[in-house]
Design brief:
Elements lengths: L1 H8 L14 H8 L9 E4 L6 E6 L8 E8 L7 E9 L6 E6 L7 E8 L2 E2 L3 E4 L8 E7 L10 H7 L6 E4 L30 H12 L2 H9 L2 E3 L10 E2 L2 E2 L9 H15 L12 E5 L3 E5 L29 H13 L4 E6 L26 H13 L5 E5 L5 E6 L19 E5 L14 H11 L8 E5 L4 E8 L2 E9 L9 E10 L5 E3 L3
């Protein structure tokens, strides 16, 4: 049982095995050769009057390549509102990214690129609204491991026409190489086959992921708001290293620099001089979204055993003082009804001691940094903040939790009345990365879920699902926030059908997470 809990609570990202299900040479010849826009188009970081547009030119020469762009109000690209010229350059791997400004708030736009007499697919994007929006809808995703399965969740998202933006919470790629030594077959092989370490390696891995048609369609049809987690660098990253980085693999700072650069090349994220992912996006008086960096900005090295927590330095941080001060100040000053935190790893306490004393806490999550978390929560309570929604990825499983300071303290928290609750934490399942039932029998995995959802051990936990892949649809209104976990039927085949969904609701200015049946 301890071994099973190890697989779950430490969120190990498992490497699978066997031969790929396609011939990569044939695939590349069919989908890439001769196609100037083989990697698709994308948009991101919408504001009320701007959006970032992105594409990647399939250009094999060293010379710069001129790219024309235009953005319109109609799908026929007749009502052009802006256009211009950019250059794809070798130093950025011929990726093109820029911000289009002077747009109208809360409006859907269409865009395309032109290079060497080839038009790109027409993309669709949407600016953020100003005050007065009646509803917002976000698709929340994380953890799309190419080797572990198909990106069917992205096809489900692409099929929707009502999404304001896709919030990606990290693990957009995985750094692992191909591993064929185990018993379970993997679905698709990574390219390159070795663990990625260099600038060329990281670019090649992103290129492979962006050739996935389902991921391409999600990018083409919806703006993304993205942050990295650890696998964009290496497993269990912290500011000075990573669990999956050894001395023989070169200097960590050089690897981190390469990974950071390539992330900004391939994601439709607004550029900045420091290549920081920390930022705030405003959706009028309905929501303000704070995107955090819990990996390379201020994180100290993870502890190795829960017993170390009692002796741990209280100054150990995950996000660092400057980022924490920025976050609290932003939350306090925000006039939006919903304060949304885009956060990589589980923020709430998760007590696993009934299953394993050795692995009672996930030390890579906020449980490994309790002093900093307690200070953040204390600041929130002192400021009398409510209606905070923490969005989390990382652990390949689904959770709905009351956001509270001391879940075990009955004098400060009551799960029935909602006393002490200042919001909710919503943990999205993985798009494809292995969850618990892909390591142990599904029935046993469900039993682990029931044991974890114990009212005495984790009284603030209202929902979990450790066995299904998919995404979260977050619907915000002036009255409530509804989180719906949308699950795919399978990731082993490329098919976009749903298994089921489950929804929860948080009433605005109320105190507890309540089961919701639409």
């Amino acid at each position: 049982m301890r071994l099973l809990v190890l697989f779950f609570s430490l969120s190990l990202f498992y490497r699978a095995q066997a031969q790929p299900l396609y011939n990569s040479a044939i695939y590349l010849q069919k989908n890439v050769l001769g196609n100037m826009f083989a990697f698709g188009v994308a948009s991101g970081d919408p504001s009320s009057n701007s959006v970032v547009l992105w594409t990647k030119l399939n250009w094999k020469y060293t010379s710069n390549l001129q790219v024309q762009w235009e953005i319109a109000e109609d799908t026929a690209m007749q009502q052009i509102v802006a256009k211009g010229v950019k250059f794809a350059k070798m130093e950025s791997a011929f990726t093109v990214k820029f911000k289009v400004e002077d747009l109208q708030p809360g409006k859907t736009y269409f865009y395309r690129f032109l290079a060497k007499d080839q038009y790109s697919p027409i993309g669709r994007t949407k600016t953020a609204p100003t005050n007065g929006a009646s509803e917002l809808k976000f698709a929340v995703v994380s953890c799309n491991n190419y080797q572990h399965g198909y990106f069917n969740a992205y096809r489900l998202i692409a099929n929707r026409c009502d999404i304001d933006a896709v919030i990606h919470l990290g693990d957009y790629i995985y750094e692992y190489g191909v591993n064929r030594t185990g018993k379970k077959p993997q679905i698709r092989d990574h390219i390159p086959e070795h663990e990625i370490l260099t600038l060329v390696d990281y670019r090649s891995r992103y290129a492979q992921y962006r050739l996935d048609e389902d991921l391409q369609e999600a990018h083409r049809l919806h703006p993304f708001i993205a942050v990295w987690d650890d696998h964009e660098f290496a497993n269990n990253t912290y500011k000075d290293g990573a669990q999956n980085h050894q001395a023989a693999e070169g200097e960590w700072e050089e690897r981190k620099k390469c990974a950071r650069q390539v992330y900004f090349e391939w994601l439709p994220i607004a550029d900045n001089d420091s290549l920081s992912i920390i930022r705030k996006l405003n959706y009028g008086d309905l929501a303000e979204v704070f995107m955090l960096d819990g990996r390379v900005e201020g994180r100290d090295k993870q502890l190795e055993h829960p017993n170390e927590l009692a002796q741990a330095d209280i100054d150990r941080t995950m996000i660092g003082k400057s980022q924490a001060d920025w976050l609290v100040r932003g939350l306090v000053e925000s006039k939006a009804k919903w304060k949304v935190m885009g956060n990589q790893v589980m923020f709430s306490e998760l007590d696993m001691h009934k299953l394993s004393k050795k692995y009672a806490r996930n030390l890579d999550a906020w449980d490994g940094y309790p002093s900093e978390r307690n200070k953040l929560l204390n600041d929130m309570y002192t400021a009398n903040l409510k209606n905070i929604l923490v969005l989390t990825g990382d652990i390949h499983t689904s959770f709905g939790l009351d956001l509270v300071r001391h879940p075990q303290d009955k004098t400060s928290y009551n799960r029935k009345t909602g006393k002490g609750v200042i919001g909710a934490e919503i943990v999205t399942p993985s798009v494809s990365s292995s969850n618990l039932d892909e390591r142990i029998p599904r029935g046993l995995a469900k039993l682990v879920g029931k044991l974890v959802k114990d009212k005495k051990t984790n009284p603030h936990m209202k929902y979990n699902n450790l066995v299904d892949h998919g995404y979260v649809l977050l619907q915000l209104s002036a009255k409530d926030a509804v989180a719906t976990w949308v699950y795919c039927k399978t990731v082993k085949e490329n098919r976009a059908d749903m298994r089921k969904s489950k929804s929860w609701i948080t009433k605005y200015d109320a105190n507890h997470l309540t089961k919701y049946r639409p």
